[in-house]
Amino acid sequence: MRGMKIRVALGLAALTIFAAAQGQPTLTELNQRLVERLKAFQSEAGFPGATFAYVLPDGRQGAVAVGFADKERNKTMQPDARMPAGSTGKTFFAAWILQEIEGGRLGLDDPLAKHLGGEAWFKRLANGEAVTLRQLFLHQSGIPEHVYGEAVHQAIRGRGDKPWTPADIVPFALDSKPLFEPGKGWAYADTNYILLALAAEAATKQNGYAEIERRFLRPFGLKGTQPATKRDMEGLTMGYTTLGRDFVGQETTLDDKGAFRVNPGFEWAGGGFVSTSQDLARWALSLFGGKVLKPETLTLAKQGVAARTGPGDQYGLGVQIRDGEWGKGYGHGGFYPGYLTEMEYVYDRFGVAIQFNTDSGQALLRGRRRVMLEMAKMVHEATR
What is the pTM of this model? Predict the structure, then answer.
């Protein structure tokens, strides 16, 4: 093992020397340019802090940070800062469920009723009898989003340290009217992935979080990524919320002890992880670079339907498919009260991710994905 580490170090050193010989910046120089670009953007936009990371297929990587992890305590943001990743976590649940489909324990066109129809609450679910797993994956179920409304907000704020279970989340998704017939429209909803994960756990008798840790977090070295199941988690970054104030109850997300003000477990399969930009960039490279799913499954996952998230946007099987100047990018954005995240596989060769400790889109001016892609272009031009 020690010899392997020496060979890898020598190999990366050789790549750096080669880059310098070709007139390309070294990784140190590239990372400094990335810091300067992110600082300039922060100065212009005024957000508290941010991290950005990239991971190249040859093992080279970098992570940078600007601003504050806690403005009140004058705590500087670090490249390995941990923040809730919001809906970016759907990619972990989707990858697990797609592997179960590869193994034949689930079918993409299974009716949801096949796996959950025996539940006492099932008949109260909009479109429950008609919807399939594929339609849930693609947000074509017609089932409304369950996370909004004062009843949900009160439940979240009043939860305290009591853990959330899927059974606690389901009631908020019941007794609503469908938005449209399954397959006849598109509407993004965390509810779709809650139901997907419930079906997968019922069919496989496995725990989704445990399987994701076993299959992905440990094997791919995602040491900063952890299921968000409790208030007290190590190394959290303070978040500043405007859009999520109804959830949190205050404008800051952490209490005086550095714990979440509310239990994040209500998110579960709708997102459900605390992570770092570097971990998410590595995950983007691993997942969309072909290290997680069979080639035919990955191809299927990347076949999207029209999504109402932006001009030309599509949504696949747990993946947002969006245009870049080089072609299609594959990844996912995330919102959690106090935080914004983007991760993507870009230029068909490397992974990038960016996280902000604010949920105010106005504080970002251009939008988080645009900033990430501007920096990804710098990485591409310096390393191609």
Answer: 0.93
